[in-house]
């Protein structure tokens, strides 16, 4: 009986060890399979992070050629990962917000900035009446406050929450630009000819305190509820401007800057009390 009991116990131990070995083997196999599934994703994320960090470093390079190359790297990031497009646009805008002397003193830096501007206009161009272009990027906002933009070509673009207050815009082309749902040009300085022909403005559009130093046209522009030009100034009031109704330049003397004020229906300016 004792020998039989020993053999039974040994058999049970063997079975248990066998089952345990099989169980451990299955855990190992499942772990290998899981690693095979997860490793490519982890590696891919790591490669994308490295590429992103390299692009950011290139943007801060002292070499203008490297700064130009960073835009191509960021564009690849945005094309492959739509979720990072807002981050890419914010980096481009941050570059354009960096101090820049105009009239131009650094031609190499100007070329980099023009490339940055083309990056934005390329991905926001969507002509009215056409299907959404493949290159169009959908973002939450366009932060260009304090930016210096030299001959930016925003024609036929669709700009979401464009913030351009305190910016310097040299010969800007905003023809047929569609702004939504708001646009802010407060205290912006427009130098050279500025074109807003056939542009579409949302219910909140402000040019309060802006300065227009060249010929400016808003011919055929559409405003949902009008725009705010309070305290906006015009350096050449007699030039061939086209202002949205009822705003017109008004100067107290021939040599003074004109202010844009909302004219009455009979063409007379409001009194000082009415303007208050």
How would you describe the overall organization of this protein?
This protein has 276 residues and is α/β, with parallel strands linked by helices. It has one domain (52-275): Pectate Lyase C-like, CATH 2.160.20. The chain has helices at 2-59, 64-80, 85-96, 107-124, 272-275; strands at residues 142-143, 148-150, 158-163, 168-170, 178-184, 189-191, 194-195, 200-201, 204-206, 211-212, 216-217, 222-223, 233-234, 247-250, 258-262. The strands form 4 sheets. Strands 2-4-6-10-13-15-14 form a 7-stranded mixed beta sheet. It has a 4-stranded parallel beta sheet with strand order 1-3-5-9. The chain is globular, with a radius of gyration of 31 Å. The N and C termini lie far apart (114 Å).
Give a summary of the structure in a few sentences.
With 276 residues, the chain is α/β, with parallel strands linked by helices. The protein contains 5 helices and 15 strands.
């Amino acid at each position: 009986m004792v020998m039989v009991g020993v053999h039974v116990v040994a058999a049970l131990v063997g079975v248990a060890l066998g089952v345990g070995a099989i169980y451990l083997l299955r855990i190992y196999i499942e772990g290998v399979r899981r690693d095979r599934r997860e490793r490519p994703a982890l590696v891919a994320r790591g490669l994308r992070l490295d590429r992103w960090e390299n692009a950011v470093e290139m943007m801060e390079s002292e070499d203008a050629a490297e700064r130009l190359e960073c835009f191509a790297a960021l564009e690849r990031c945005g094309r492959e990962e739509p979720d990072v497009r807002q981050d890419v646009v914010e980096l481009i805008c941050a570059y354009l917000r960096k101090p820049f002397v105009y009239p131009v003193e650094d031609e190499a830096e100007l070329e980099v900035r023009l490339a940055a501007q083309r990056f934005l206009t390329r991905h926001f161009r969507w002509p009215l009446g056409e299907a959404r272009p493949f290159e169009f990027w959908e973002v939450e906002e366009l932060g260009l406050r304090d930016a210096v933009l030299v001959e930016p070509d925003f024609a036929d673009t669709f700009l979401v929450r464009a913030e351009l207050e305190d910016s310097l815009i040299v010969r800007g082309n905003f023809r047929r630009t569609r702004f939504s749902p708001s646009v802010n040009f407060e205290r912006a300085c427009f130098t050279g000819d500025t074109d807003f022909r056939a542009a579409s403005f949302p219910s909140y559009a402000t040019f309060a305190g802006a300065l227009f130093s060249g010929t400016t046209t808003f011919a055929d522009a559409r405003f949902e509820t009008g725009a705010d030009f309070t305290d906006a100034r015009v350096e050449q009031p007699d030039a061939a401007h086209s202002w949205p109704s009822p705003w017109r330049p008004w100067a107290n003397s021939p040599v003074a800057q004109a202010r844009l004020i909302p004219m009455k229906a009979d063409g007379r300016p409001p009194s000082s009390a009415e303007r208050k």
